Amino acid sequence: MRVHASVFAQESQDWKSGLSKLELLNVFNIHLDITDANLMMAKDVLAHLKEDGRFTIEIHAVLTNPDDLWLILGDCPISCVYFQAEDLASDPFENIPSSYEGVKKGLAYRWTSLEHLQPEKMEYLDALLLMTTIPGQSGGSFPNEAFQVIGRWRRALAGTSFLIDGGIRPEVASVLKILGISNVVIGAHLMRSDNPYQAYLDILHPDIPVDIQAKYFMIDAKNVAQVPSDCSVWDALEALDKGGLGIVLVVDQGKCLGLATNADLRKAVLHDQQGKENAPWWNDNPLSIQSETTFSQMIDLLNQHALPVNLLPVIDKEEFCGLVHFNYLAHSL
């Protein structure tokens, strides 16, 4: 996981000591939250960073007038600019200076307002910043309810670069890895720590129990392909293909009877072509967890099984509730 350090998360405005702290940690990815209130201080920071030349700088602009950003950059090299999207009246990149036309362009959204995101708009942008706390303000707690929203958009916009900012701590980072997130902004956890080196290591290699429950980061059942038990193999294969997750659940009146993966249905199709139409085509005893199973309990369960598990259904009292999909599990262990 790549850490983007929020310099303005210092408890004081002593940003130079914050940069020195990052140098000692060998962290050179800088995230600057630029607001109307800190615009002039940001100008000084950018001038310093331009002269230093070692840092990769990205900007999250929360500004009443987006064009104010271009006036303070002073030709400092920037890797990416995110504008807070909710209050934008027009394209914030419309008046971008020619010297910054090659910069990566992004939008930032509060996780609670992502329903306003237009996927077609992202085709013209390079990156998406998801805010899980108040934009432009340091501190705050990551809401567990944001995990499912992040996971849903991560799957919907697979070709877009994602960055998560707000309340990132080691246990949150562990779950984000499973959701396919590899870039996070670290603010107060790092910049206000008495031991920033340990805080940094804890994000990269957490070695603590994670009590976040599966119900917060699973894919909701309504977004997973489901078929009844009297469904044909061919109909199940069509449902699996439309579902896009490589799995179909067999559910009768809310009761989960089992699941079938690509491999299961491929074998069933071969049997069907050989005249074995009644051959069973789903696994009626899959490894599963409950919605209140914690992340740490789930990892312990997986470590007890020699065979790799890529998909883990969440079942409460025979009712299918959701699915944990381990596209990125190798990066979280």
Task: Explain what the structure shows.
- The structure is a single chain.
- The protein is an alpha/beta fold and 333 residues long.
- The chain has twelve helices and 14 strands.
- 31% of the residues lie in helices and 23% in strands.
- The strands form three sheets. The chain has an eight-stranded parallel β-barrel with strand order 1-2-3-4-5-6-7-8.
- α6 packs parallel to α8 and α10 runs antiparallel to α11.
- The protein is elongated.
Break the fold down into its secondary structure elements and pairings.
Elements: E1 2-6, H1 15-25, E2 29-35, H2 39-52, E3 56-62, H3 68-72, E4 80-84, E5 104-110, H4 119-122, E6 127-131, H5 146-156, E7 161-165, H6 170-178, E8 183-186, H7 188-191, H8 196-204, H9 214-217, E9 219-220, E10 226-227, H10 233-243, E11 247-252, E12 255-261, H11 262-273, H12 295-303, E13 311-316, E14 319-325
Parallel strand pairs: 1-2, 1-8, 2-3, 3-4, 4-5, 5-6, 6-7, 7-8, 10-11
Antiparallel strand pairs: 9-14, 11-12, 13-14
Helix pairs in contact: 6-8, 10-11
The poorly predicted ranges are none
The number of helices is 12
Largest sheet features: 8 strands, parallel, barrel
- Rg, rounded, reads 23 Å
Order of helices and strands: EHEHEHEEHEHEHEHHHEEHEEHHEE
Structural class by sheet pairing and helices: alpha/beta
Assess the beta-strand content as a share of residues: 15-25%
Q: What is the approximate shape?
A: elongated
Helical content band: 25-40%
Q: Give a count of the beta strands, DSSP E runs of length 2 or more.
A: 14
The end-to-end span amounts to: 12 Å
Q: What strand line-up does the widest sheet have?
A: 1-2-3-4-5-6-7-8
Q: What's the assembly state of these chains? A: single chain
Overall pLDDT level? 89
